[in-house]
Structures are given as structure tokens and as C-alpha cells.
Amino acid sequence: MNEISAKQEKVLAAMAAHVLEHGLTTASLRPLAKAASTSDRMLIYHFGDKDGVIGALLGYLAAGFVSGLDMAIPAERFATKGALLAAVVAVMRSPMAAGYARVWLDIVAASARREIAYAQTGGAIIEGFVAWVTVRLPDGEQNPDRAARTLLTVLEGTLVMDAVGHGDAADAAIAWFSGDGGQ
Amino acid sequence: MNEISAKQEKVLAAMAAHVLEHGLTTASLRPLAKAASTSDRMLIYHFGDKDGVIGALLGYLAAGFVSGLDMAIPAERFATKGALLAAVVAVMRSPMAAGYARVWLDIVAASARREIAYAQTGGAIIEGFVAWVTVRLPDGEQNPDRAARTLLTVLEGTLVMDAVGHGDAADAAIAWFSGDGGQ
DNA sequence: TTCTTCTTGTAGCGAGTGCTACATTGCCGA
DNA sequence: TCGGCAATGTAGCACTCGCTACAAGAAGAA
């Protein structure tokens, strides 16, 4: 069960598309199976139980997101951290990323509910994202770690504000992050 | 059904306590009814359907949250906007507010899923919060609206980071928000 | 061939979901 | 005292949930 065969890969891809459209926590086995042209019976057979399905799905989605992000924003240092934030926000607001944002907010809500599997995944994703941001910060940054974490916090706030229809508020924060003299 | 009787008030309070503990979107009628020492039958009778129950609950929770927040932080202008953010974050991180944060992230996730009832409530809460912040900003603030929205975005980012166990990252953003020369 | 092992379909279980039909209580006004 | 209406209990419907028992095909090893 460790190696992921080509068939399982296809099943995961189809389920991922379904989850990106409809959300993670509302996904149940039968609709998931239908999306992948298989049966709930087979999902359990391959992944053990529902947690196994969700875990595999989370891994698949995280990998897909990272590769998409790397594709959109190559690993080069930006001139200013404001420009970096603006670039990431632009990607996150693109249609391609909307599904990932939905899933991410599901993970966050589940983490807040202290569902450990989700909380661990969520924490790991943030850590990866901190590293991703750090290597793209301007060269002269005197405190890259703090800058990366600040940038990420503003990004998360932006996702929340966008979700509830107040992207304008997030824009204010982005402009402010970009315009201060701290860089 | 417009007037809320004392009995309904009690039912709402009991259900609110249950939701603050266990989350909003995972709440179903029978557990909710049990928490309020009544029956699912009666909840439907009083509130029409489940959406009615959730709507009433959201209103009750929002009112409770605002009054708790007003209690903790009176409507006076702070010396710096950084101090205001720090004060709000301190309240949001207190045990009293943990349940509200959980429910809020449920609302955000549902909004991202485009469930309109939640999205509207979420937007309204943000608008109320912007006003709440604005009247507490320092007197000399040259762009209070922008400052309030920026502060709120950082606050939302903090909630997300706290949920996934990276409050340290949020601390960096808070310190940065407080320490820049923009005030 | 026969035997084993992997894969898959069919059917269903027990629990939970929102909601409803129907009957019964209790109380208040006429 | 009686009629009417709000309030409540009991039962159940049609459905979904995660998961499992059982059997049967498929495919390769002996």
C-alpha cells in the first residue's frame, strides 16, 4: 500500500478535483468514489478507512498546490517583500487556486476544532510555506524569518477576508505591508 | 415567532454553549436539542427548519460575542493602533473567546464554500468589527478606515495561525504591525 | 490443472440525518 | 363548561453515513 500505482494516482486525481470543487470536510465516501468512477467499497479497500482516504487526498492536494505555486512563482528573490506578498496574493486569488483556498480553510476550521490529523497537516503546510517564502525574500532582509512569518500571517488574513467578501480590507493590509519603511 | 420569549432565550443559550464547545457546522438537531433539554421536534417547531435554528444561533452568538468584547475592551481610543491590536488579540486568545474563534472559522470555511447564509453573516460580522475597531483607533490616525481594515486582516491571520499551532508567526506580524513608523 | 492471492461487486447493517404525521396535553377565552 | 389553539411526545419515513460480510472473477504460481 506504500507505492502508489498509476491507477491509484488516477483515483486520487479524480477525487482531488471533486474536493477542490466541493470542499474537504463535506466530502463523503460515496460521492468521492463516484467522482473517481469506483465504489466506496474500493476506497476502503485501498486506503484502509476514511481517514486514510482523506490523508492520501491531503498529501496529493498539498503536492499539487506546491507544484502549482512553484510553477507560478519561481524560486528567485524578489526586490521587495511587498512585491512578493502581492505576487502570492495574486496567485491565491486566481481561479486555479480558489479550490485550494477552500480546502485550506476547511483544514483550518478542523484544526480549530482540535481534530489532530488536520491540525498536524495544517501545521506542516505552514512550515513548508514559511520556507517557501523565506527563499524568495529580498536579499537585504535583516530578519527573514520574522518577515516570512509576518507575510504569511497577512496572507492568511487575506484568505479569510476574501472568503467573507471583504477583499478590500485585505487590500489595505497588503498595501500597508508593502509601503512601510521596515524593509 | 419574531419575539423571543424567555424560554426560547434559554434554549438558545444552551445550544450556544454546545456550539461554542463543539463547532457550528458539525452540529445536528438531536444533539443540539439534547443540550437544550428539548427535542429536535421542538426546535423545528420553534425555528421552522434547521436553517432557522442555525440563523437564530448565529445571531445569538454574534450578540454574545460583541457584548463580551465590549466588556473586555471599552470604547475608548487607544494610544497606538499596535496596542489596540495587541489588546484584541489577547482577548481572542483567552479561553472565553476560544469557542467563538472556532465558530468563526466554521463560518469562514462555509463562506468559502459559497454557502450564502454563512457568507452574508460573515460579511456583516466583519463590517461590525471594522466599526468597532475604528472608534478605538488613536485620535491622530490619518487614515482610520485603512488602519482598521489592516488591523482586522492581521487579526484574522492571527486566528488562522493560532488554529494551526503557529501563533508564533502571528506574534511576528503583531510585533511588526505595532513597531513600524506608519502610525 | 489446481490452488492461492489480489481485486471487485452486491448487499446490507447499525447509526445518524432533517423532517413530518398524528395524537395528546394544557391553558385561556367565551 | 366547552371550544380552540399553542405546545409537546411518540413514531416513523426516506435518506446518508462509514464500514463489513460474502462471494465471485482474474491472474499468476505450483
Q: What's the gist of this structure?
A:
The structure is a homodimer of 183-residue chains. By secondary structure, chain A is mostly helical.
Structure in words:
The structure is a homodimer of 183-residue chains. In chain A, helix 5 runs parallel beside helix 8 and helix 7 packs across helix 8 (144-163). Chain A has 183 residues and is mainly alpha-helical. Chain A is elongated, with a radius of gyration of 18 Å. Chain A folds into 2 domains: 1-56, Arc Repressor Mutant, subunit A (Orthogonal Bundle), CATH 1.10.10; 73-183, no CATH class. The model of chain A has no long low-confidence stretch (mean pLDDT 94). The first copy, chain A, has helices spanning 6-22, 29-35, 40-47, 50-72, 81-93, 95-112, 116-134, 144-163, 167-179. Chain A is built from 9 helices and no strands. The N and C termini of chain A lie far apart (49 Å). The interface between A and B is large, with 50 and 50 residues. Chain A binds a DNA duplex (30 and 30 nucleotides) through helix 3.
Core attributes:
homodimer; 183 residues; mainly alpha; Arc Repressor Mutant, subunit A; 2 domains; 9 helices; 75% helix; elongated; DNA-binding
What does the secondary structure layout of this molecule look like, with pairings?
Two copies of one chain form a homodimer.
Chain A: H1 6-22, H2 29-35, H3 40-47, H4 50-72, H5 81-93, H6 95-112, H7 116-134, H8 144-163, H9 167-179
Chain A binds a DNA duplex (30 and 30 nucleotides) through residues 28-30, 38-42, 44-45, 49-50.
